[in-house]
Amino acid sequence: MSRIIVKNLPKNIKEERLRKLFSEKGVITNCNLKYTPDGVFRKFAFIGYQTDSAANNAIKFFNNTYIDTNKIVVESCQKLGEKYKARPWSKYSKGSSAYKRLHPDEVDHTEEKAKSFEKKAKIEKINVVGELDKDEKFKEFVSLHQNLSVKPSWQDDGVTVNNDGKDIAFESDDDSDEESGHKEKKEKSEDEPEKEVEEDNEKQLTTEERERDKVNRVLQTSRLFVRNLYYDCQEDHLKDLFSVYGEVNEVHMPVDFKTEKSLGFAFISFTSAENAVKAMTELDGCDFQGRLLHILPAEKKRDDDGVPENLTYKAKKLLEKKQNAGSVHNWNALFVSPSAVADVMAHKYNVDKMDVLEDTGKDSLAVRMALGETEIVAETKDFLIKNGVKIDIFGKPETKRSERVLIVKNLSSGTRRKDIENMFEKYGDIERVVIPPYGLTALVMFRLPIACRNAFRAIAYKKVKDSPIYLERAPFGVFDEDIKPVVETEDKPKKRKKNKKHKEEEAESEKVDSNSKTEEKVTAPDQNKEEKEKKSINKKNVEHVTGKIIVKNVPFEATQKEVRELFSTFGELKYVRLPKKVSGGHRGFAFIEYISKEHSKVNKF
Questions:
Q1: Residue 339's closest CA among 411, 437, 408, 416?
Q2: pLDDT tens digits, residue range 77-117?
Q3: Mean confidence (pLDDT) of the chain
Q4: Domain assignment present for 38
Q5: Quick one: angle between helices 273-283 and 176-221, nearest 10?
Q6: Same domain, yes or no: 70 and 173
Q7: 551 belongs to a structural domain
Q8: Which of 4, 40, 67, 279 could form a disulfide with 36 if both were Cys (CB 3.0 to 4.6 A apart)?
């Protein structure tokens, strides 16, 4: 229990002083001094700590100590709705005898009447006759003195005896009307406790109906509304608390962006409605971080209402994509559009985009684009690894998703860091932005999870420069904290200057050729023998080190020539085989074998 009660406090003590005094043992989340409706201090207070250990330390330290001249008593609070509670003693508590004496009009006499009714019933069941019940003469005597409503008309009046022979009452002939009136009053008074019990049952039924209504609402939505939270509470704390009762789909805790603190309430979404009901029944009224939780059924999310019918087909499709964007989907983390690949290649080699996309017939356009994309992806991977991004996590489909990191894809070429910051910073503070060369993808890390979710909902599938932006939640632990990020000096790819660099490359190549010719003249015949021996050894090893790879998801329009042309850039091929269907055409995958095993590692691209 993280809540404590402090009794016998001084009359003039203030909340600030009490907070300052008890904050020595831990972080205080709640301090509540109790007053009467008239404003009279009742000399006790409730204090809530963030952890149970802090509350226990405060009890050990402050119990039976003095504040001014008052010896205080510090105890752990009892749970809300606990059956076995201590008897109230204060004159301000309704259950105490002192309160009943001071407020006789407000006292509910139903319990006292029920108790007196039970006592009367017990007295009536007492066997007054005793051993006479076994005597036959006494039985005959009782039969002659039966009740008027039971005995025959010829028998004498004067005595009323019940059939069981246990209770005897004597009656006289006089004042029969008064006695009958007394009987009616007696019957009414006996009926009063039964009516009161029925009223209590009706009240219980109303509370039961309310509980059933709450359960039915939770079963429909699987969402809970939790309030009275500590303002420094985090979403991870709530997820850890509620995940004990089942898988939590989402925790949404609104935050004040100026102070970056919680507003004191949150919404919890479960994957199973039964788990949500179980969590509500068991955690409602429970203490959490020094406060008593109040849990109610939550309404449906606005996105769950469906797509309006009055929208156009294009608007409906866009809205459906935005609604389904939040689902965990294992997209290609390094997705690059063909148009962006053409832009980067044209910019990199200082040519027009039309020249890149032109089909000259000498080489295949598909092979050219695939090689360009491979080069871009390889450079992007190297850049991300240098900046502390774990590339291996992206290939695992069942990894936990981060609540603060987004992968931004399908950006137009040349996107800068400032463009990303201007796009996302309006939704919350950004801690980190990693944008690889050419600006086609980016990783954005927010300070708060709610800012990340708001940005996701607003920017997913939003058009920027005639291309929609694809967003995905990054895997959990995507950044390696041990590696410091590399400072980005230039966002745009460098343009090649054709004349100078070509001249320099030609001059270097001429020098290399001249050096190689001189080395060939100087080499001795012994060196040639060693080189021949090495080549023979390598040829023997190549036979044992051959590598095969399988290529899946090959387009049905691709030919064997195009596949060979694409993969021959990474090494010398032994063969390429595309298994064919009976009806014609290949089956969508290929087998490729390289002469060297090192060249077969091309599958990492």
A1: 411
A2: 887 766 666 777 777 777 777 777 777 776 665 556 566 65
A3: 75
A4: yes
A5: 130
A6: no
A7: yes
A8: 40
CA distance 591 to 564: 11
Exposure of 604 in the CB half-sphere (CA atoms within 13 A): 10
Residues 549, 556: Cα–Cα separation, whole Å: 19
DSSP string, 123-142: HHTS-SSGGGGG-HHHHHHH
- Cα separation, 268 vs 236, in Å, equals 12
Contacts 24+ apart (CB under 8 A), 583-589: 585/556, 586/554, 586/556, 586/558, 588/552, 588/553, 588/554, 588/555, 588/556, 589/550, 589/551, 589/552, 589/553, 589/554
- Residue 99 inside a domain? The answer is no
CB count within 10 Å of CB 296 equals 14
Residue 234 and residue 182 in one domain: no
Angle subtended by helix axes 365-386 and 560-567, to nearest 10: 30
For residues 286 and 355, state if they share a domain: no
In this predicted structure, what is the pLDDT of residue 276? 92
Instruction: Mark 344-359 as b/e (b = at least 16 C-beta within 10 Å).
Output: bbbbbeeeeeeebeee
For residues 19 and 28, the answer to whether their CB atoms sit within 8 Å is yes
Tally of domains within the chain: 5
Q: Are residues 343 and 244 in the same domain?
A: no
Same domain, 350 and 446: yes
**Nearest C-alpha neighbor of 224 from the set 275, 284, 268, 162:** 268
384 and 342, same structural domain?
yes
Q: With the CA atoms of 10, 16, 20 and 23 taken in that order, what torsion angle do they form, in degrees rounded to the nearest 10?
A: 100
Asked if residue 93 is part of any domain, the answer here is no
Q: Is the pLDDT of residue 603 over 80?
A: no
Judge whether 281 and 239 are in contact, CB under 8 Å: no
Q: What mean pLDDT do residues 470-490 have? A: 72
Block residue for tokens 């409706």: 37
Domain hosting 371: range is 338-475
* Strand ranges of the sheet holding 590-594, from the earlier edge strand across to the other edge: 547-551, 590-594, 573-577
Whole-angstrom CA distances from 495 to 150, 341, 350, 420, 603 are 120, 16, 7, 23, 30
CA distance 101 to 121: 28
The tens digit of pLDDT for each residue in 123-178 reads 555 555 666 667 787 777 777 766 544 445 444 444 444 444 444 444 444 444 44
Residue 225, amino acid: F
In Å, how far are 70, 406, 423, 452 from 430, measured between CA atoms?
52, 11, 11, 9
Which residue is listed with tokens 């966002």?
A: 491
Q: Residue 388: give its domain's CATH number.
A: 3.30.70.330
Which amino acid, 487? V
Q: Choose the final residue of a domain: 438, 460, 475.
A: 475
Q: Read off the amino acid at residue 444.
A: V
Cα dist. 216→273, 298, 414 in Å? 10, 11, 54
The residue among 28, 55, 76 that closes a domain is 76
Query: Are 71 and 142 members of one domain?
Result: no
Location of structure tokens 């925790």: 251
- DSSP letters of 302-361? GGGG---TTS-HHHHHHHHHHHHTTS-----TT---HHHHHHHHHHHTT--HHHHH---S
